[in-house]
């Protein structure tokens, strides 16, 4: 009997502890869109991405033209000339793929630029959320941006504007 009453006391205390926890949420998309430096950085990244893509498209066009020319002249070429042209086309295509990878891979120039431009802003937001959590005694602060798992969120617990104020935006 004593065990049962101890277990009941533990369950009651843990239920009370769960009720006493404070939870909140933020919408990081909303926050980031309100920060001019972030939208500016996004614009710069989009412009850079388009520039890289234009460069790559132009190089692929050259490869396609080489291939089309090769196809039209293929019957007139000797075996050695055909192999030389095929090697040239393959080398050009490989060069373009390497360029594309150097720009668009996870370790590429675009990813590095994204890290350089966005990380300081994201760190600032994270630190503000952390400070608000500490100051307000929140156990958990959820980010509802792009989260299909949240069925309902009460605006009363939205801390997004508080985060913006904390980092100096209204």
Structure commentary:
- This protein is mainly α and 170 residues long.
- The radius of gyration is 29 Å and the shape is rod-shaped.
- It has a two-stranded parallel sheet with strand order 1-2.
- The chain has one domain.
- The protein is 73% helix and 6% strand.
- Helix 3 (36-73) runs antiparallel to helix 4 (79-104) and helix 3 packs antiparallel against helix 5 (109-136).
The whole-angstrom Rg is 29 Å
Number of domains: 1
Please, what is the average pLDDT?
87
Q: Which class do the helix and strand fractions yield?
A: mainly alpha
Strand content: 5-15%
Distance between the termini: 59 Å
The arrangement of helices and strands along the chain is HEHHHHEH
Offer a concise description of the structure.
This protein is mostly helical. The protein has one domain (21-166). It is built from six helices and two strands.
Features:
single chain; 170 residues; mainly alpha
Give the arrangement of secondary structure elements.
Elements lengths: L1 H19 L1 E5 L1 H6 L2 H38 L5 H26 L4 H28 L1 E6 L16 H7 L4
Parallel strand pairs: 1-2
Helix pairs in contact: 3-4, 3-5, 5-6
């Amino acid at each position: 009997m004593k065990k049962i009453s101890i277990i009941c006391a533990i369950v009651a205390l843990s239920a009370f502890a769960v009720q006493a926890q404070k939870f909140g949420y933020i919408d990081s998309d909303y926050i980031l869109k309100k920060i001019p430096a972030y939208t500016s950085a996004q614009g710069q990244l989009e412009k850079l991405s388009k520039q890289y893509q234009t460069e790559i498209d132009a190089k692929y066009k050259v490869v396609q033209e080489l291939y089309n020319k090769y196809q039209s002249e293929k019957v007139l070429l000797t075996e050695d000339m055909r192999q030389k042209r095929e090697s040239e086309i393959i080398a050009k295509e490989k060069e373009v793929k390497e360029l594309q990878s150097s720009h668009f891979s996870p370790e590429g120039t675009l990813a590095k630029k994204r890290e350089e431009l966005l990380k300081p802003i994201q760190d600032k937001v994270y630190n503000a959320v952390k400070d608000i959590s500490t100051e307000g005694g929140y156990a958990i602060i959820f980010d509802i941006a792009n989260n299909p798992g949240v069925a309902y969120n009460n605006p009363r617990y939205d801390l997004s504007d508080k985060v913006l104020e904390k980092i100096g935006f209204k």
